[in-house]
Description:
Layout lengths: L1 H16 L15 H4 L13 H10 L18 E7 L4 H5 L2 H7 L3 E7 L5 H10 L20 H6 L5 E5 L11 E2 L9 E2 L9 H4 L2 H4 L2 E3 H9 L6 E5 L11 H16 L2 H4 L2 E7 L10 E7 L10 E3 L3 E2 L1 H11 L15 H7 L47 H8 L19 H5 L1 H8 L8 H20 L1
Parallel strand pairs: 1-7, 1-8, 2-10, 2-11, 3-6, 3-7
Antiparallel strand pairs: 2-9, 4-5, 8-9
Helix pairs in contact: 1-18, 5-11, 6-13
The structure holds 2-acetamido-2-deoxy-beta-D-glucopyranose (10 copies).
One 2-acetamido-2-deoxy-beta-D-glucopyranose (NAG) binds next to loops.
Amino acid sequence: MKLTVLALASTVAAAGFTPGLGETQTQAFTGNTKTLYTNTPVIPSQTPDLAEIKAAAATATSNSFKSKKTVKGKAFDRYHQIWLENTDYQKAFDQAGLKALTKQGILLTNYFALTHPSEPNYVAAVGGDYFGIFDDIYRTLPEEIFTVADLLDSKSISWGEYQEHQPYTGFQGFNYSRQTDYANDYVRKHNPLVMYDSVTKKPERLGNLKNFTEFHKDVADKDLPQWAFITPNMTNDGHDTDIEVSGTWSYNFLSPLLNNTDFMKDNLIILTFDETETYTEQNRVFALLLGGAIPENLKGTTDDTVYNHYSNIATVQANWGLPHLGRGDVTANVFKFVADKIGSSVTNHNITEHGLYNNFSYPGYFSDKSLGFPTPLINATGTSGNKILPAIADLVKSGNSSVASNSTAGHNGTATGAKASGSAGVAAAKGSVSHNKNGAEAAVVSLGAALVGVAALLL
Ligand SMILES: *[C@@H]1O[C@H](CO)[C@@H](O)[C@H](O)[C@H]1NC(C)=O
Ligand SMILES: *[C@@H]1O[C@H](CO)[C@@H](O)[C@H](O)[C@H]1NC(C)=O
Ligand SMILES: *[C@@H]1O[C@H](CO)[C@@H](O)[C@H](O)[C@H]1NC(C)=O
Ligand SMILES: *[C@@H]1O[C@H](CO)[C@@H](O)[C@H](O)[C@H]1NC(C)=O
Ligand SMILES: *[C@@H]1O[C@H](CO)[C@@H](O)[C@H](O)[C@H]1NC(C)=O
Ligand SMILES: *[C@@H]1O[C@H](CO)[C@@H](O)[C@H](O)[C@H]1NC(C)=O
Ligand SMILES: *[C@@H]1O[C@H](CO)[C@@H](O)[C@H](O)[C@H]1NC(C)=O
Ligand SMILES: *[C@@H]1O[C@H](CO)[C@@H](O)[C@H](O)[C@H]1NC(C)=O
Ligand SMILES: *[C@@H]1O[C@H](CO)[C@@H](O)[C@H](O)[C@H]1NC(C)=O
Ligand SMILES: *[C@@H]1O[C@H](CO)[C@@H](O)[C@H](O)[C@H]1NC(C)=O
């Protein structure tokens, strides 16, 4: 026990006060993260029964994007993300279907998930932070927390999700199981945007949250949104099966699409995994870029730049000249071929994966309510020279308590996502991220929270 305490204390201290990646990232916590956190908010789960689901399905409407003009990007016009589950890099690399797909794309050999388990990784992929989430239970992010959807809307770029077997468009329930045997089928924890009130409380946005029936219809109708997040069910994504199933599913799902010229036109697809299976290894996952936007000479190549899930948001920002969220997206690297195409406005960081683990969640609101939601970095310049979304800055300046908390967790390596990715520290060291004057205080608060957690562990 004593060893655990010392290890955790030094980890938090290192994360809080040492700039840079690599060496500072060693995470030596060996206990169960859940036992650390007690002051968590209680959010009632939504579990409608079948009759309620059927009634709601009857009135659900799905949005069409046909009338929207395609907004041209600098390196691609559409960005489609497909996420599989819980697989170590090498296991994915060795799977025949995935191996075959690598011939048509760019394999990212240093792409990192942010933590364990699933839910915080999905939350982070669209919101730029995981806000201390360390489990898979029912969570909602308050309306004041913005996502990539707000960034895309700022330039009228269409976006949507396709979640296999979600029972109807805009469904917000915790799960929808296979009704014959109640096996896991659709699960909310793998649906990133539905966890944000800033999405679900705007009724017109619910029409963008669709299932695979709608996906196939939208492919056929040439009605896909420009940005999409695609999640197969718990069988096909490998969660309840294995890499043979998810790899084969991926090959079979993608093969016809990769032959479809309408689908492929100026499209960038990323096929990746939410996290590794083995918690004691580096959280480095297989990630493959595919699609018509991949330059012919780069097909079948690898890119060893260090990326993480926030790179998806940063790349989309660079491509369409979008503002940022003031969170982990600010300093995440942009995919190299995109950065190369765009040129000097993109400044990627040369960081090493050495010692980068990202294998447990730093504290934040969902593990300790008193930490609040970190204040977005309103003065920061993003990786592509971009500034914060003005609506976020306005909210912060208005003193809105949800986003103007006294917590800087996440920005200065003290708690949540940004530092878990290691990139905030690098940017801070380079001087491109403004320092919040409460940084030192927050570090102490956070360290205190972690130690309180350890005390709980000892009891
Ligand atoms: C965190 O904030 C403290 C106090 O402002 C500062 O001394 C330290 O350099 C910061 N660390 C990083 C990684 O930015
Ligand atoms: C993270 O990885 C390190 C190094 O293998 C290991 O010691 C630690 O137990 C892991 N942490 C968790 C929470 O699994
Ligand atoms: C998918 O969503 C549509 C639109 O709400 C619905 O009509 C359909 O039944 C759903 N498909 C499945 C397989 O649940
Ligand atoms: C959700 O999962 C639980 C537990 O397996 C099951 O009892 C329930 O019927 C599921 N809900 C739906 C709508 O499928
Ligand atoms: C997952 O989807 C596939 C079809 O893609 C279906 O055959 C399978 O039964 C589904 N799994 C569950 C547990 O419902
Ligand atoms: C895709 O096209 C290739 C080459 O034309 C062909 O060999 C392959 O069978 C096609 N795949 C599918 C799924 O249509
Ligand atoms: C990145 O930094 C490493 C040393 O940390 C160096 O060996 C390598 O050449 C650098 N790469 C680039 C592209 O600058
Ligand atoms: C952001 O910049 C403005 C104007 O320079 C300054 O007044 C404000 O204190 C800065 N805010 C933060 C959080 O650094
Ligand atoms: C914060 O902003 C949101 C969105 O504009 C608003 O609904 C909420 O009432 C505000 N809360 C406070 C405490 O100002
Ligand atoms: C932050 O605010 C909370 C409640 O609003 C308070 O309990 C806590 O002491 C404050 N922390 C600091 C470092 O000011």
